[in-house]
Amino acid sequence: MSPRHCAAMLFIAAAAWPLAAPAQSIHFGRLFTTPSERQRLDAVRMGGASAAGGQTAVTLPDATAAPAPPPPPPAPLTVNGVVRRSDGRTTVWINQSPQTGGDVKTAPGPRQPTVAVPLPNGGQAQAKPGQQVDPTTGAVHDATQ
């Protein structure tokens, strides 16, 4: 038998093979899951509660749901102290954190210097050591109040 005849017979056999197979539909299903996992996945996809395993379905937030509550107001800013060095540099403590360099703006006062406390809205409030500033309104009051 010549190689051409072998190739022709192989081609005919390959073409006829699906006809010789049983008349069943080939369905691979979902791979790598058990029937109970598939049932749970189907339930989650349909929007219902999970079927087995006691797990809850993940749902997206509804557009008609109530909006998230606003964030809590920022904590008051307390000017704890000011130190002016003989070389001209100044350190200001706000909420127990030292602030130095270009961020610190002070103005001399009769007894205590006034500190320009930056506010979240871009403004500034003038406060002395021992005073608190409300960052939302800029109101200044003694820390003991």
Automatic annotation (TrEMBL):
<feature type="region of interest" description="Disordered">
    <location>
        <begin position="46"/>
        <end position="145"/>
    </location>
</feature>
<feature type="compositionally biased region" description="Pro residues">
    <location>
        <begin position="67"/>
        <end position="76"/>
    </location>
</feature>
<feature type="signal peptide">
    <location>
        <begin position="1"/>
        <end position="23"/>
    </location>
</feature>
<feature type="compositionally biased region" description="Low complexity">
    <location>
        <begin position="56"/>
        <end position="66"/>
    </location>
</feature>
<protein>
    <recommendedName>
        <fullName>DUF4148 domain-containing protein</fullName>
    </recommendedName>
</protein>
<keyword id="KW-0732">Signal</keyword>
